[in-house]
Amino acid sequence: MKNKFYITTPIYYPSAEAHIGHAYCTTMCDILARYKRMRGVETYFLTGTDEHGEKIQKKAAEAGVTPQQYVDDIAAKFKNLWKAMKISNDDFIRTTEERHTKVVQNIFSKLYKNEDIYLGKYEGWYCTPCESFWTDTQVGEDHLCPDCGRPVHKDTEECYFFKTQKYLPSLLKYYDENPKFITPVARKNEMLNTFIKPGLDDLSISRTTFDWGIPVKENNRHVMYVWLDALCNYITALGYDTEHHELFDKFWGEDSEIVHVVGADITRFHTIYWPMFLQGLGLRLPDRVFVHGLLDLNGEKMSKSRGNVVSPIPLIERYGVDTVRWFLAKEFSFGSDGRFSPELFAERINVDLANNFGNLVNRTTAMINKYFGGKVPALSNPGEKEKFIEDLTGKTVRKYEALMDDLQPTEAFDEVINLLNSTNKYIEESQPWVLSKENRVEELGNVMAVLVNSIITCTKLLSPALVETQDKVFAMFGLSKEQQQYDYVNKFCVYEGNVVSKGEPLFPRLDVKIETDFINSISH
Ligand code: ME8
Q: Is the peptide bond before 312 cis (omega within 30 degrees of 0)?
């Protein structure tokens, strides 16, 4: 395992306000960043906004404000949302900031001097919303954008091109030598079959038809193509090519694991062109581009014009931040497409948080107060059932860590839920109420000690998602600073004598019908 970790979200277009899809990607990155920090890995987590391009310029004109005013307003809303969702990003880059624009201009000059770029003429099919040119084959007979499915139009433009063929052989070699560079692996095959094998054209990287972009220093009629501008954020934010390059040296160095998490709609830019730009600059390539699936709402693509966008803020206000984060982390397997529906939301919270985790905590605190005056008893002479849970706990921790390290948080949480289920089953099998009636104090104490151990271990393992719950559980079980350390997940039943208080129920059960009506009422 490398000893540094650099993780990034896409930088989102501030063309409309963030919805649950953006929140999904950012939350998954936050979970991975928090996990790495918990394991003692030096971590840097970046997100931001991608503020240039024709689309933004048009939106601003429609709103009757300057593009800068337009993006200032929406970027501030993105920042507020991440704060409300307890996102632990270390920086927030905006591509209109000078620390970015200046360096991108120098990057263009470097690539130009390196003869990776030339001036030419482009003719093709253009999709305005995606800011992408496409070939005849790509748009097909219906002339639809292969990315978003909307109509494209014929356009011609003088522009600078990036020589993709120059770097294609070394890119393919990198794919071969790094089988996890693009995951899930189906996404790599999609790149090869859809874009690379049919023949990769040179990429046009400047525009002359609008001016809301970073000017090309060499030729002031041109602004930079928004994707060249945007992709560079991953290094400009670290101070690449500036006096303050400490972060760049640290997190873009060989001993740093670099992970870009992106949605399936933008895989091509991150797995084909971005590595080529990096090669042109003589820089190392990222370790992983993890492609997550896209969420729809009740089977329909989310979009403002359809009026089916769910904003995370009213959800957080009603259910609390941990509940929303948990739903996103657990409902959709990371890497697969998913369907958001109000019923699924309420059911997921009830099954995992109210009935399983929350109920275990409530029962345990109540029993320790009733049977042991609120003090955690010691484990002594454990029987088969206790040994089974001890063994399962060890296995769970090892599987969880391996899955998290492999960027599979949903599956890592499945393991923890499994341990919680087994612990609840262990209560039914041990029947502490019978042990109490028959005055079998040692056995009863063992049950309590095991329950406390499971709760504390699972709380820690779930804490990258459940960021507020951890503090509540630690307080309820009177954990010392020492006991709060992550490494305690490798010890078993070491909480003897801790004082347990009865808190409020952690996760109240939701009424599926009432909550479905509520969530439908806030979709717009
Ligand atoms: O593409 N489900 O920005 P963008 C899940 N600026 N994730 C979703 C989603 C959905 N329905 N909708 C959006 C851009 N996302 C460029 C990126 S990076 C150098 C430049 C998430 O605002 C998903 O991660 O359109 C997707 O890739 C990203 O938002 C696109 O955001």
A: no
Specify burial of residue 480 (Cβ count, 10 A radius: 0-12, 13-18, 19+).
exposed
Ligand 1 pocket by C-beta < 6 Å: which residues? Answer: 10-13, 21-22, 24-25, 50, 230-231, 233, 262-263, 265-266, 294-295, 302
Query: Contact 348/509 with Cβ under 8 angstroms?
Result: no
pTM: 0.94
Q: What is the pLDDT of residues 251-286, one digit of tens each?
A: 999 999 999 999 999 999 999 999 999 999 999 999
Specify the DSSP element, H or E, that contains 340: strand 338-340
Run of H or E residues at 110: helix 98-113
Residue nearest to atom 16 of ligand 1 (CA): 12
The backbone torsions φ and ψ at residue 43, rounded to the nearest 5 degrees and listed phi first, read: -125, 145
The residue contributing the CA closest to ligand 1 atom 14 is 12
Give the distance (Å) from ligand 1 centre to CA of residue 67: 20
Sheet holding 256-263, edge to edge: 91-94, 42-49, 4-8, 256-263, 288-292, 182-183
Tell me how far the alpha carbon of residue 275 lies from the centroid of ligand 1, in angstroms.
19
What value does the mean pLDDT take over residues 127-156? 89
Residue 331 near residue 258 (C-beta atoms within 8 A): no
